[in-house]
């Protein structure tokens, strides 16, 4: 049995399996793991070249030109079907054909849409076929993710619309939007884009374009309708300024010229030590040094892990991994001592739901797969994002680009001292001496990447421990999503600076955990701890409450607060047409999602002795505070879950480590 332990939950959950096979299988060679490897730059280019050459698709370059054209938006690996992969890995079957997933925006058609294709075989593609969503639904053009081209057109629309507001913005902020060179305004856009399926209306928060501009709203929010593929038909529909709504920029400008507008005047930002910057300021009262290096990770006798291609080995662990442009890290064929524990463990979605008084704040419900969460894996800094000793790997994405783009040092792998023993015991003789001491240093192998989704940075980790425990963890950092402060906004957040409100929000992260414990025939169990009053056998008349749980019994104290999530854990049968719980289209059409996770649960299938998938949601409520300036810090802002063995091994498997410390008294 393997346990699924949620770090924020009290329930202990498990996947039970039948008898274990004997003897244990051995891990596959690295060439077998390559069926899960990301597409190489050559493969990405080959897919693009092939599709661009097909006259029936009529594809044009992504950059420049109008939106009313057909473009290739995304190319990434299309993983093999599970049954084909297992036949190859376990039964010596044929190697699955290597294919790509290609997303095409058909904007030049009479009825624009988005279509996904399977393209192969790689490395020399010669055919393509459409990929179908459940129910045969097509992707509406309005559900497509944003592109750089659409942002450029949105910028032009906003620049023209802001011309009447030049004097108001210059006088109140010292910055303006059109024809600016140094004192420029920028914007952050909000999603979902509208209130119903088929709409594409975005609220834009105007901000001073300085370092950390996310924390510099100027009190103006603008609603732009950009649903039509022709930007000449785009229009500003509403404005919000300092607590009031206006129907047009001209109306707002007239109110300012008439002197009837409540103007929010902002001081000139300083040239140095801006509050939103990382520049050092202030002092620590102890005077201990901070200008010298702190503790560092070292490998005194070399690396204790092995990396061959996308196949990673460490102690008893082995796994294949990839970095999806659409959603991030994905592990395959996770094994311990050669025995498969999970076919897939992967990040699915990261969501942030906000509250607020301004229209942009109350509309904000970010679903980060729709923002290319796996493609914004920017270069990590040695010694800060990962230790200097780490192995760094590049990633190549073809996402809203006219070819593969290299992201240097997008992934790192390193062994990390945990700072606490994996296990230890001091066996006292209670007479000033001891019988023995034994301990094993705590270490874990970390597989890490980051996603910078505009203001927020996510640090994604998978940790492998020597005792057969795996941890999935995400840290949230970066800039908070902030809006302009008004007294009414205090109900929805904290005033973190003079004109800045940090908006209350909830982070939710969804994972897929396709456990295959001793084969694919698994069952789901929960272990409940109940309270029982029994007679004390050694003291008649006394009663002994067996309170072994972490919660108080009713009447023993206050009940814990409810956790506001729909599902901490959902378990379904594996289906090849349910590979993900979300999609890149959910952000811009959450009302009629192409992938409906609720639909996974409504078929009322048996989950006894079946191929099961656990879908795990972790998260936390973030109430912003002044200490989130300039950035949210990682301590206290991390969530995740553990996979732990439960009577799976005969003993702790880390006893195979040859590095314990055992101390015994000298013989008299």
From TrEMBL:
It comes from Pandion haliaetus. GO terms for cellular component: plasma membrane. The modification 2',4',5'-topaquinone is found at residue 456. Belongs to the copper/topaquinone oxidase family. Residues 296-537, 566-654 form the Copper amine oxidase catalytic domain. Keywords: Copper, Metal-binding, Oxidoreductase, Signal, TPQ. Its cofactor is Cu cation. Residues 43-127 form the Copper amine oxidase N2-terminal domain. This is Amine oxidase. The keyword Metal-binding applies. It is an enzyme of class 1 (oxidoreductase). Topaquinone (TPQ) is generated by copper-dependent autoxidation of a specific tyrosyl residue. InterPro entries: Cu_Am_Ox_Cu-bd (IPR049947), Cu_Am_ox_TPQ-bd (IPR049948), Cu_amine_oxidase (IPR000269), Cu_amine_oxidase_C (IPR015798), Cu_amine_oxidase_C_sf (IPR036460), Cu_amine_oxidase_N-reg (IPR016182), Cu_amine_oxidase_N2 (IPR015800), Cu_amine_oxidase_N3 (IPR015802). Residues 1-18 form the signal peptide. Pfam families: Cu_amine_oxid, Cu_amine_oxidN2, Cu_amine_oxidN3. Contains 1 topaquinone per subunit. One of its GO terms (molecular function) is copper ion binding.
